[in-house]
Amino acid sequence: MNILSGMARVLKEALPLLIQGMLTTVQITIVSLAIAVFIGLFTCLAGMSSVRPLALLAKGYIGLIRGTPLLVQTFFVYFGIPQLIQSFGLDFRLSAYSAGVVALCLNAGAYIAEIFRGGIQAVDPGQMEAARSLGLSKGRAMLKVILPQALRISIPSLVNQTIITLKDTSIISVISLADIVYQAKIYIGRTMESFATWTVVGIFYLIFVSILTFISNHIERKMDYGKKS
Amino acid sequence: MAKKVSVRNLCKDFGALGVLKGIDLDVEEGEVICIIGPSGSGKSTFLRCLNMLEKPTSGEVYVDSFLLTDKKANIDLIRRNIGMVFQQFNLFPHLTVRKNIMLAPTDTKTLTKRQAEEKALQLLARVGLSDKADVYPRQLSGGQQQRVAIARALAMNPDIMLFDEPTSALDPEMIGEVLSVMKELANEGMTMVIVTHEMGFARDVSDRVIFMEDGVIVEEGTPEEVFVNTKEERTRQFLGMIL
């Protein structure tokens, strides 16, 4: 019965706080991913380019991100980089929000680069040949023929990455960014209602992940290029 | 007649494997040439060297007196004049038939969007697919897809057309519709180089037939010379196997 009354209490007291936290979570996710898609696209193209330094830079970045945990990356961006810059005598501080977005978009960008690479490589090489044979340059063929198809192939993995990033924002709460996990921890610290609060937080995440899955299924159906009719 | 294509001592190696071992060929304007030969003889590789989809290891390829094998050649510009049709059609699956045909002329700014659209519909009528402008390639049969691919290549107004086994991926009942479109093109005076296994077609439309084996031209001549008065033993063997 304690549990039930605890749930009622959390719903009554903490809901506005948690909703506010969830909005921050969603906002950070959207901002980070929007930037990450561009980082990913450029990293992917750089990694596949014939300009050696560019390709090496892209591979190094992806290796660095994949080889270290997001928690370490977050601390590095929030505490490490400002200290490095301050050591040159410059005044530099990052807000928790900016640091969180930077860490998340750098992290997701590396994974999205790999997703795009997989998508591009999955497009039939005959497509590039056909486009080139018509007189399109390599860049135009990439833009008009390869990338649209690669993007379509990448959608399931991109949605997967979106879900991962949405959940990864919870790690950013360690630099006291007021996301839903941070709000939950504060509330529990005051009231000790662990079970009820974490249940509600879990449900929030579930709802958003379900919405994302629904949207992605819809997009996939929309982009079927006449498969059904 | 003017020379459209000139090939001099063309060689192509894939690693240690020599695929083309010194090919010489001239194609006159309006000429229709069919290249026949067993698989692995280098016919497709040779055709793909004519628009630089395959980079020759050595030798020279001139198209309209431009040297394609020159490193400084603007290959994109020259390719606009050379249409190519592939065995696997290679239509763009994310675009409708109409957009497939319009892509190259609009993207290269050869035609305005309206002109390209007009051109697309006109070409679709020519290949007998006027009612298919707004469907996606995968909604078409193989034969229809290949006819769209021919229309797409023609949209750039090329004066040379390359065909790389255009009917080899088709069900038998669809081969005829593609060949008849090609035959019409040939009758209109298009310069064509065709790699094919359709001997009846080769005999019908070619001005010249070329038999290739092991990366060299073994025999060439009019259809009558190659098919009827065959000179080379290897050609005779090959024809005996497939006819």
Number of strands of chain B: 10
* CATH class identity of chain A: Mainly Alpha
Main sheet makeup of chain A: none
**What do the pLDDT scores of chain A average to?**
92
- What's the overall geometry of chain A? flat
What is the gyration radius of chain A calculated from CA atoms?
A: 22 Å
Total helical segments of chain A? 9
Q: How far from one another are the termini of chain B?
A: 34 Å
Q: Shape of chain B, please?
A: globular
Order of helices and strands of chain B: EEEHEEHEHHHEHEHEEHH
Strand content of chain B: 25-35%
Layout of strands and helices, then pairs:
The complex is a heterodimer of chains A (229) and B (243).
Chain A: H1 2-13, H2 15-48, H3 52-67, H4 70-86, H5 96-122, H6 125-133, H7 138-168, H8 180-191, H9 194-222
Helix pairs in contact in A: 1-9, 2-3, 2-5, 2-8, 3-5, 4-5, 5-7, 6-7, 7-9, 8-9
Chain B: E1 3-14, E2 17-28, E3 32-36, H1 43-49, E4 58-63, E5 66-67, H2 75-79, E6 82-85, H3 97-107, H4 113-126, H5 142-154, E7 160-164, H6 172-187, E8 191-195, H7 199-205, E9 208-213, E10 216-221, H8 223-228, H9 233-242
Parallel strand pairs in B: 3-8, 3-9, 6-7, 7-8
Antiparallel strand pairs in B: 1-2, 1-4, 4-5, 9-10
How would you explain this protein's 3D organization?
The complex is a heterodimer of chains A (229) and B (243). Chain A is mainly alpha-helical. Chain A has a single domain (2-228), classed as MetI-like (MetI-like fold). Helix content of chain A is 82%, strand content 0%. Chain A contains nine helices and no strands. In chain A, helix 5 packs across helix 7. The radius of gyration of chain A is 22 Å and the shape is flat. The model of chain A has no long low-confidence stretch (mean pLDDT 92). In chain B, the strands form two sheets. Chain B has a six-stranded mixed beta sheet with strand order 6-7-8-3-9-10, with helices on both faces. In chain B, strands 2-1-4-5 form a four-stranded antiparallel beta sheet, with helices on one face. The mean pLDDT of chain B is 94. In chain B, helix 6 links the parallel strand 7 and strand 8. Chain B is α/β, with parallel strands linked by helices and 243 residues long. Helix content of chain B is 37%, strand content 26%. Chains A and B meet through helix 6 and helix 7 of A and helix 2, strand 6, helix 3 and helix 5 of B.
